[in-house]
Amino acid sequence: MPAPLKNDLYLRALGRENTERTPVWVMRQAGRYLPEYLETRKRAGDFMTLCSTPELACEVTLQPLDRFNLDAAILFSDILTIPDAMGLGLRFEAGEGPIFDKPVRTRADIESLPVPDPADELRYVTDAVSLIRRELDGRVPLIGFSGSPWTLAVYMVEGRGTKDFSKVKGLMFSEPALMHQLLERTADSVTAYLNAQVEAGAQSLMIFDTWGGVLSPAMYREYSLAYMQRIVDGLKREAEGRRVPVVLFTKNGGAWLDAMADTGCDGLGVDWTTDLAVARQLTEDRVALQGNLDPSTLYATPERIREEVKRVLESYGHGPGHVFNLGHGIHQHVNPDHLGVMVDAVSEFSAR
User: 93, 264, 283, 320: most buried by Cβ count inside 10 Å?
Assistant: First the structure.
Protein backbone atom coordinates (compact mmCIF):
# COMPACT_ATOMS: atom_id res chain seq x y z
CA MET A 1 0.00 0.00 0.00
CA PRO A 2 1.24 3.54 -0.78
CA ALA A 3 2.21 5.70 2.18
CA PRO A 4 -0.63 7.83 3.60
CA LEU A 5 -0.52 11.51 2.66
CA LYS A 6 1.14 13.75 5.21
CA ASN A 7 0.03 16.92 3.36
CA ASP A 8 -3.31 16.78 1.52
CA LEU A 9 -3.99 20.56 1.37
CA TYR A 10 -3.93 20.53 -2.43
CA LEU A 11 -6.49 17.72 -2.77
CA ARG A 12 -8.73 19.26 -0.10
CA ALA A 13 -8.63 22.65 -1.83
CA LEU A 14 -9.63 21.06 -5.15
CA GLY A 15 -12.53 19.44 -3.29
CA ARG A 16 -13.49 22.92 -2.05
CA GLU A 17 -12.92 21.86 1.55
CA ASN A 18 -11.62 24.31 4.15
CA THR A 19 -7.82 24.37 4.49
CA GLU A 20 -5.57 25.94 7.14
CA ARG A 21 -3.83 27.95 4.40
CA THR A 22 -3.88 28.21 0.62
CA PRO A 23 -1.88 25.38 -1.01
CA VAL A 24 0.69 26.34 -3.62
CA TRP A 25 2.55 24.68 -6.47
CA VAL A 26 3.91 26.07 -9.75
CA MET A 27 3.53 25.08 -13.39
CA ARG A 28 6.95 23.92 -14.70
CA GLN A 29 8.24 23.87 -11.11
CA ALA A 30 10.76 21.20 -12.16
CA GLY A 31 12.63 23.08 -14.85
CA ARG A 32 15.40 25.19 -16.28
CA TYR A 33 15.36 27.94 -13.62
CA LEU A 34 16.84 25.41 -11.14
CA PRO A 35 20.62 24.79 -11.31
CA GLU A 36 20.10 21.23 -10.03
CA TYR A 37 17.72 20.54 -12.93
CA LEU A 38 20.31 21.79 -15.42
CA GLU A 39 22.87 19.43 -13.87
CA THR A 40 20.54 16.43 -14.24
CA ARG A 41 19.63 17.40 -17.80
CA LYS A 42 23.32 17.65 -18.65
CA ARG A 43 23.80 14.13 -17.30
CA ALA A 44 20.87 12.89 -19.37
CA GLY A 45 22.37 14.31 -22.56
CA ASP A 46 19.13 15.55 -24.09
CA PHE A 47 15.58 16.46 -23.11
CA MET A 48 13.83 13.32 -24.41
CA THR A 49 16.27 11.05 -22.55
CA LEU A 50 15.48 13.02 -19.38
CA CYS A 51 11.73 12.55 -19.99
CA SER A 52 11.94 8.89 -20.92
CA THR A 53 14.25 7.68 -18.12
CA PRO A 54 12.03 7.12 -15.04
CA GLU A 55 14.89 7.54 -12.54
CA LEU A 56 15.88 10.90 -14.03
CA ALA A 57 12.26 12.08 -14.38
CA CYS A 58 11.77 11.17 -10.70
CA GLU A 59 14.92 13.04 -9.68
CA VAL A 60 13.87 16.31 -11.33
CA THR A 61 10.25 15.97 -10.15
CA LEU A 62 11.48 15.94 -6.53
CA GLN A 63 14.08 18.72 -6.85
CA PRO A 64 11.72 21.70 -6.30
CA LEU A 65 10.13 19.96 -3.30
CA ASP A 66 13.54 19.71 -1.64
CA ARG A 67 14.03 23.45 -2.12
CA PHE A 68 10.56 24.97 -1.53
CA ASN A 69 7.58 24.32 0.75
CA LEU A 70 5.30 23.23 -2.11
CA ASP A 71 2.04 21.34 -1.63
CA ALA A 72 2.09 19.16 -4.76
CA ALA A 73 4.53 17.44 -7.09
CA ILE A 74 3.85 17.31 -10.81
CA LEU A 75 5.15 14.50 -12.97
CA PHE A 76 8.14 15.63 -15.05
CA SER A 77 7.24 14.85 -18.64
CA ASP A 78 6.19 16.65 -21.83
CA ILE A 79 2.76 17.27 -23.34
CA LEU A 80 3.96 15.80 -26.66
CA THR A 81 4.57 12.24 -25.41
CA ILE A 82 1.34 11.00 -27.05
CA PRO A 83 2.04 12.23 -30.61
CA ASP A 84 5.60 10.95 -30.21
CA ALA A 85 4.20 7.53 -29.25
CA MET A 86 1.99 7.71 -32.37
CA GLY A 87 5.21 7.59 -34.41
CA LEU A 88 5.42 11.22 -35.56
CA GLY A 89 9.17 11.51 -34.88
CA LEU A 90 9.48 14.11 -32.13
CA ARG A 91 12.79 15.90 -31.66
CA PHE A 92 13.85 19.09 -29.91
CA GLU A 93 16.11 21.58 -31.67
CA ALA A 94 17.98 24.28 -29.73
CA GLY A 95 16.20 27.60 -30.23
CA GLU A 96 13.45 25.89 -32.25
CA GLY A 97 11.47 23.92 -29.69
CA PRO A 98 9.65 20.70 -30.62
CA ILE A 99 9.65 19.48 -34.23
CA PHE A 100 7.77 16.51 -35.70
CA ASP A 101 9.43 14.84 -38.68
CA LYS A 102 6.10 13.36 -39.81
CA PRO A 103 3.30 15.92 -39.31
CA VAL A 104 -0.27 14.79 -40.07
CA ARG A 105 -2.02 16.72 -42.82
CA THR A 106 -3.89 14.26 -45.04
CA ARG A 107 -6.74 11.82 -44.56
CA ALA A 108 -4.29 8.92 -44.90
CA ASP A 109 -2.03 10.45 -42.22
CA ILE A 110 -4.90 10.78 -39.76
CA GLU A 111 -6.57 7.45 -40.47
CA SER A 112 -3.29 5.60 -39.94
CA LEU A 113 -2.66 7.13 -36.49
CA PRO A 114 -2.60 4.48 -33.74
CA VAL A 115 -3.97 4.98 -30.23
CA PRO A 116 -0.80 4.32 -28.19
CA ASP A 117 -0.93 1.67 -25.49
CA PRO A 118 0.12 3.32 -22.21
CA ALA A 119 1.47 -0.03 -20.99
CA ASP A 120 3.74 -0.29 -24.04
CA GLU A 121 4.81 2.85 -25.93
CA LEU A 122 4.24 5.09 -22.89
CA ARG A 123 5.41 2.66 -20.23
CA TYR A 124 8.31 4.98 -19.30
CA VAL A 125 5.73 7.57 -18.12
CA THR A 126 3.75 5.18 -15.91
CA ASP A 127 7.01 3.74 -14.56
CA ALA A 128 8.07 7.29 -13.64
CA VAL A 129 4.72 7.91 -11.90
CA SER A 130 5.09 4.73 -9.80
CA LEU A 131 8.68 5.57 -8.88
CA ILE A 132 7.85 9.18 -7.94
CA ARG A 133 4.96 8.03 -5.72
CA ARG A 134 7.28 5.63 -3.94
CA GLU A 135 9.99 8.26 -3.45
CA LEU A 136 7.49 10.91 -2.31
CA ASP A 137 6.49 8.58 0.52
CA GLY A 138 3.32 10.60 1.19
CA ARG A 139 5.00 14.03 1.41
CA VAL A 140 2.55 15.67 -1.01
CA PRO A 141 0.15 14.49 -3.75
CA LEU A 142 1.40 13.75 -7.27
CA ILE A 143 -0.23 15.46 -10.26
CA GLY A 144 -0.36 13.62 -13.59
CA PHE A 145 -1.10 15.52 -16.80
CA SER A 146 -1.54 15.63 -20.54
CA GLY A 147 -1.96 18.20 -23.27
CA SER A 148 -5.50 18.76 -24.53
CA PRO A 149 -6.53 17.17 -27.85
CA TRP A 150 -6.67 20.58 -29.58
CA THR A 151 -3.23 21.59 -28.30
CA LEU A 152 -1.71 18.25 -29.35
CA ALA A 153 -3.39 18.57 -32.76
CA VAL A 154 -1.80 22.01 -33.24
CA TYR A 155 1.69 20.50 -32.97
CA MET A 156 0.75 17.36 -34.91
CA VAL A 157 -0.58 19.30 -37.90
CA GLU A 158 1.81 22.27 -37.86
CA GLY A 159 4.82 20.02 -37.20
CA ARG A 160 6.36 22.62 -34.88
CA GLY A 161 5.52 25.77 -32.93
CA THR A 162 3.53 28.36 -34.87
CA LYS A 163 2.42 31.97 -34.68
CA ASP A 164 -0.41 31.96 -37.24
CA PHE A 165 -1.86 28.41 -36.84
CA SER A 166 -2.46 28.40 -40.61
CA LYS A 167 -2.17 24.66 -41.23
CA VAL A 168 -4.24 23.46 -38.28
CA LYS A 169 -6.92 26.13 -38.69
CA GLY A 170 -6.87 25.55 -42.44
CA LEU A 171 -7.67 21.88 -41.81
CA MET A 172 -10.34 22.81 -39.26
CA PHE A 173 -12.18 25.13 -41.65
CA SER A 174 -11.64 23.24 -44.92
CA GLU A 175 -12.15 19.66 -43.66
CA PRO A 176 -14.00 19.79 -40.34
CA ALA A 177 -14.92 16.08 -40.38
CA LEU A 178 -11.26 15.14 -40.77
CA MET A 179 -10.28 17.50 -37.96
CA HIS A 180 -12.87 15.89 -35.71
CA GLN A 181 -11.48 12.46 -36.59
CA LEU A 182 -8.01 13.59 -35.49
CA LEU A 183 -9.36 15.08 -32.25
CA GLU A 184 -11.43 11.96 -31.43
CA ARG A 185 -8.40 9.73 -31.80
CA THR A 186 -6.27 12.11 -29.74
CA ALA A 187 -8.93 12.42 -27.03
CA ASP A 188 -9.20 8.63 -26.74
CA SER A 189 -5.40 8.44 -26.45
CA VAL A 190 -5.33 11.12 -23.74
CA THR A 191 -8.10 9.38 -21.76
CA ALA A 192 -6.25 6.04 -21.78
CA TYR A 193 -2.97 7.78 -20.92
CA LEU A 194 -4.39 9.71 -17.95
CA ASN A 195 -6.21 6.65 -16.59
CA ALA A 196 -2.92 4.74 -16.78
CA GLN A 197 -1.25 7.52 -14.78
CA VAL A 198 -3.96 7.17 -12.10
CA GLU A 199 -3.45 3.40 -12.00
CA ALA A 200 0.29 4.01 -11.60
CA GLY A 201 -0.28 6.37 -8.67
CA ALA A 202 -1.19 9.89 -9.88
CA GLN A 203 -3.52 11.46 -7.29
CA SER A 204 -4.76 14.39 -9.37
CA LEU A 205 -4.86 15.16 -13.10
CA MET A 206 -4.41 18.30 -15.17
CA ILE A 207 -5.18 18.92 -18.84
CA PHE A 208 -3.14 21.71 -20.44
CA ASP A 209 -4.98 23.45 -23.27
CA THR A 210 -2.17 25.79 -24.21
CA TRP A 211 -3.62 26.83 -27.57
CA GLY A 212 -7.39 26.86 -26.93
CA GLY A 213 -7.22 30.63 -26.54
CA VAL A 214 -6.40 31.14 -30.23
CA LEU A 215 -9.89 29.93 -31.23
CA SER A 216 -13.10 31.92 -31.63
CA PRO A 217 -15.81 31.18 -29.01
CA ALA A 218 -17.79 28.88 -31.33
CA MET A 219 -14.66 27.06 -32.55
CA TYR A 220 -13.36 26.72 -28.98
CA ARG A 221 -16.51 24.95 -27.87
CA GLU A 222 -16.55 22.63 -30.89
CA TYR A 223 -12.87 21.81 -31.32
CA SER A 224 -11.34 22.18 -27.86
CA LEU A 225 -13.87 22.10 -25.04
CA ALA A 226 -15.96 19.25 -26.50
CA TYR A 227 -12.91 16.98 -26.49
CA MET A 228 -11.85 17.94 -22.98
CA GLN A 229 -15.42 17.07 -21.98
CA ARG A 230 -15.01 13.68 -23.68
CA ILE A 231 -11.87 13.06 -21.62
CA VAL A 232 -13.43 14.18 -18.31
CA ASP A 233 -16.35 11.80 -18.98
CA GLY A 234 -13.92 8.90 -19.51
CA LEU A 235 -11.57 9.45 -16.59
CA LYS A 236 -11.18 7.26 -13.54
CA ARG A 237 -12.19 9.65 -10.76
CA GLU A 238 -11.44 7.59 -7.67
CA ALA A 239 -8.36 5.67 -6.50
CA GLU A 240 -7.04 4.47 -3.15
CA GLY A 241 -10.40 5.35 -1.57
CA ARG A 242 -10.15 9.01 -2.55
CA ARG A 243 -11.40 11.24 -5.35
CA VAL A 244 -8.92 11.94 -8.15
CA PRO A 245 -9.63 15.58 -9.04
CA VAL A 246 -9.17 16.86 -12.59
CA VAL A 247 -8.19 20.43 -13.45
CA LEU A 248 -8.64 22.01 -16.90
CA PHE A 249 -6.44 24.92 -17.98
CA THR A 250 -6.99 26.93 -21.16
CA LYS A 251 -4.44 29.70 -21.61
CA ASN A 252 -6.28 32.92 -22.53
CA GLY A 253 -9.52 31.07 -21.77
CA GLY A 254 -11.03 33.48 -19.23
CA ALA A 255 -14.11 34.09 -21.36
CA TRP A 256 -15.06 30.39 -21.26
CA LEU A 257 -14.57 29.55 -17.59
CA ASP A 258 -18.31 29.06 -17.01
CA ALA A 259 -18.54 26.61 -19.93
CA MET A 260 -15.41 24.82 -18.71
CA ALA A 261 -16.93 24.46 -15.24
CA ASP A 262 -19.92 22.70 -16.86
CA THR A 263 -17.70 19.75 -17.89
CA GLY A 264 -17.78 18.23 -14.41
CA CYS A 265 -14.12 18.99 -13.72
CA ASP A 266 -13.05 19.76 -10.14
CA GLY A 267 -10.90 22.80 -10.81
CA LEU A 268 -9.91 25.34 -13.43
CA GLY A 269 -6.52 26.91 -14.02
CA VAL A 270 -6.84 30.67 -14.53
CA ASP A 271 -4.12 32.66 -16.29
CA TRP A 272 -3.10 36.15 -15.17
CA THR A 273 -5.37 37.95 -17.69
CA THR A 274 -8.52 37.15 -15.66
CA ASP A 275 -9.09 38.44 -12.12
CA LEU A 276 -9.89 35.60 -9.72
CA ALA A 277 -12.90 37.53 -8.37
CA VAL A 278 -14.33 37.60 -11.90
CA ALA A 279 -13.51 33.90 -12.35
CA ARG A 280 -15.40 33.08 -9.12
CA GLN A 281 -18.42 35.03 -10.33
CA LEU A 282 -18.36 33.30 -13.73
CA THR A 283 -18.09 29.82 -12.21
CA GLU A 284 -20.42 30.55 -9.24
CA ASP A 285 -18.08 28.69 -6.89
CA ARG A 286 -18.91 25.37 -8.57
CA VAL A 287 -15.23 24.48 -9.03
CA ALA A 288 -11.91 25.24 -7.37
CA LEU A 289 -9.69 27.84 -9.04
CA GLN A 290 -5.94 27.59 -9.54
CA GLY A 291 -3.73 30.61 -10.16
CA ASN A 292 -2.87 33.21 -11.07
CA LEU A 293 0.20 35.37 -10.45
CA ASP A 294 1.81 36.72 -13.64
CA PRO A 295 5.04 34.67 -14.01
CA SER A 296 6.98 37.87 -14.79
CA THR A 297 6.29 39.07 -11.23
CA LEU A 298 9.13 36.81 -10.14
CA TYR A 299 11.62 39.16 -11.80
CA ALA A 300 10.62 41.85 -9.27
CA THR A 301 12.03 42.62 -5.83
CA PRO A 302 11.02 40.38 -2.92
CA GLU A 303 8.91 43.23 -1.52
CA ARG A 304 6.98 43.60 -4.79
CA ILE A 305 6.52 39.82 -5.09
CA ARG A 306 4.98 39.77 -1.61
CA GLU A 307 2.63 42.64 -2.53
CA GLU A 308 1.47 40.82 -5.66
CA VAL A 309 0.94 37.54 -3.76
CA LYS A 310 -1.26 39.41 -1.30
CA ARG A 311 -3.18 41.01 -4.17
CA VAL A 312 -3.88 37.62 -5.80
CA LEU A 313 -5.04 36.13 -2.48
CA GLU A 314 -7.32 39.14 -1.91
CA SER A 315 -8.71 38.86 -5.45
CA TYR A 316 -9.86 35.31 -4.67
CA GLY A 317 -11.28 36.44 -1.34
CA HIS A 318 -12.57 34.30 1.51
CA GLY A 319 -13.82 30.74 1.28
CA PRO A 320 -12.42 27.39 0.17
CA GLY A 321 -11.34 26.31 -3.30
CA HIS A 322 -8.18 28.28 -4.13
CA VAL A 323 -4.87 26.71 -5.15
CA PHE A 324 -2.17 29.36 -5.57
CA ASN A 325 -0.11 29.08 -8.75
CA LEU A 326 1.38 31.20 -11.48
CA GLY A 327 -0.89 32.08 -14.40
CA HIS A 328 1.38 29.98 -16.63
CA GLY A 329 4.76 28.24 -16.39
CA ILE A 330 7.70 29.72 -14.48
CA HIS A 331 10.28 31.38 -16.75
CA GLN A 332 13.69 29.79 -17.13
CA HIS A 333 15.65 32.94 -16.15
CA VAL A 334 13.88 33.53 -12.83
CA ASN A 335 16.04 33.58 -9.68
CA PRO A 336 14.97 30.49 -7.69
CA ASP A 337 15.12 32.51 -4.46
CA HIS A 338 12.29 34.67 -5.80
CA LEU A 339 10.06 31.63 -6.11
CA GLY A 340 10.92 30.87 -2.47
CA VAL A 341 9.74 34.39 -1.54
CA MET A 342 6.44 33.75 -3.35
CA VAL A 343 5.85 30.35 -1.75
CA ASP A 344 6.59 31.63 1.75
CA ALA A 345 4.37 34.68 1.21
CA VAL A 346 1.43 32.49 0.17
CA SER A 347 1.75 30.49 3.40
CA GLU A 348 2.17 33.60 5.56
CA PHE A 349 -0.66 35.70 4.13
CA SER A 350 -3.21 32.94 3.55
CA ALA A 351 -2.78 31.49 7.05
CA ARG A 352 -3.99 34.81 8.43
Answer: 283
